[in-house]
Amino acid sequence: METLSLGQYDLIFNAFSFGFATLAAATLFFWLGIGQVKSEYKTALVITGLVTFIAAYHYFRIGQSWVDAYTLVDGVHVPTEKAFNSAYRYVDWLLTVPLLLIELILVMSLSRSETVSRATSLGLAALLMVALGYPGEVSDSGGVRWIFGLLSMIPFLWIVFQLYVGLGKAIESQPENARGLVRTARNVTVGSWCFYPVVYFAGAVGLEGPFATVVVEVGYTIADIIAKAGFGVLIYMIAMRKSEDTNDSIKTAVPAE
Amino acid sequence: METLSLGQYDLIFNAFSFGFATLAAATLFFWLGIGQVKSEYKTALVITGLVTFIAAYHYFRIGQSWVDAYTLVDGVHVPTEKAFNSAYRYVDWLLTVPLLLIELILVMSLSRSETVSRATSLGLAALLMVALGYPGEVSDSGGVRWIFGLLSMIPFLWIVFQLYVGLGKAIESQPENARGLVRTARNVTVGSWCFYPVVYFAGAVGLEGPFATVVVEVGYTIADIIAKAGFGVLIYMIAMRKSEDTNDSIKTAVPAE
């Protein structure tokens, strides 16, 4: 950790605070909508809110850790002994990343057995992906970072394959008013998740210094907001659309955006 | 930041505390009313409460930042190294200002496609308005403050135009018992939002010193309470009025005040 200017320190702190506020607000938005969806989608909304709840908790902790990690000396922020706790993100991802895939499965109206088997296999793959990244993240050795990063890419690529190929038919069979949203949700998952290995490997090729810290911390925060709150709004909309059907079976399905 | 008297410091702190209490109470008022409105208006109340929730969180943080920013020396409050974090307001506005327009759209019973397109365009315009103000707010240069302030007025004027002209017909088509409230809600939006550029440009013409700080901080707090909690109560009343219709279709609509 290096000395940061006022602007650099503040930008990162404000990003963490913004992350907390957005994720906490998203949590309540999802949970307050539970009463408006059919019972088969209520659990999906519970989990969607749990993901942002867990993430909000961690951003609160991350913000606190950031404040403790620096002290103001002559107009610049100097690192204290209490190193910024970067493990918070990995602990968060261990919980939230499997749940993100599960919430998507739960709004796809698959058969009970397919729901269980896909949720389990995707959840475990996500767990493995995050767990493999961690030793590389905390290591000082570039080589170790590369090895674990590449190992972590294996379950990631399997997940991407499942989302496009394994679940392809199920996605195309979604009702018309929700199909576009489900496709978008899948694309947002893969697109937003791609950000994390980019940051990870930038660390592996030696990107460092205050500017890199700003890019990494603000970048991860924005990626988390998109991947959890933004994605969650798509899940919410899918659940809402699919819950309209029973009330308005005559109403022609509005084209999904 | 300058030295403040006991009275000046306390007034501002108490304004922040009052802001938190009012906004937190408003949040719970809106959410506890969700069960009493028709399903098409529930999301509007969720969002109305989210706006005041996010604002309450930020007033809590703002109050804390205020306390950390001053130290009591010989009966006056002297600035500490920890500068008062004025970014909190902008981060708050980035989230809440788009949502304020969206909650108004959601109680206007527009068609699905118009609801989505207006909510999106107004939300983005609001986001742009706030984002353009930020560089001016944090700059020491009066010139920079002017430039960004004027740029920010462009999306603001577009929003005002939409509220009076673009949505004019939709507002006049509201049911009789809610029409006056919707007009009032629109007027409160524009009226309360006008306060912010006045404060912003007062900073650009060099208004400063302890008295200016009191006016700015207390003023912004009052404006936020009116624009979020006060406006939210109007949205709540509109949703309640429009939910009466189905129960009392024989009852002649009470003229809106």
Notes on the protein architecture:
The structure is a homodimer of 257-residue chains. With 257 residues, the first copy, chain A, is mainly alpha-helical. Chain A has a single domain, classed as Rhopdopsin 7-helix transmembrane proteins (Up-down Bundle). Helix content of chain A is 77%, strand content 4%. Chain A contains nine helices and three strands, in the order E-H-H-E-E-H-H-H-H-H-H-H. A three-stranded antiparallel β-sheet of chain A has the order 1-3-2. In chain A, helix 5 packs antiparallel against helix 8 (195-204). The first copy, chain A, is globular. Chain A starts with a strand and ends in a 13-residue tail after the last helix. The model of chain A is unreliable at 247-257 (pLDDT under 50). Chain A binds chain B through residues 6, 10, 14, 17-18, 20-22, 24-25, 28-29, 32-33, 35-36, 72, 75, 254, 257, and chain B through 31, 34, 39, 42-43, 46-47, 49-50, 53-54, 57-58, 61, 81-83, 85, 87-88, 91-92, 94-95, 112-113, 116. Chains A, B: It comes from Octadecabacter arcticus 238. Chains A, B: Keywords: Chromophore, Membrane, Photoreceptor protein, Receptor, Retinal protein, Sensory transduction, Transmembrane, Transmembrane helix. Chains A, B: One of its GO terms (molecular function) is photoreceptor activity. Chains A, B: InterPro entries: Arc/bac/fun_rhodopsins, Rhodopsin_retinal_BS. Chains A, B: Belongs to the archaeal/bacterial/fungal opsin family.
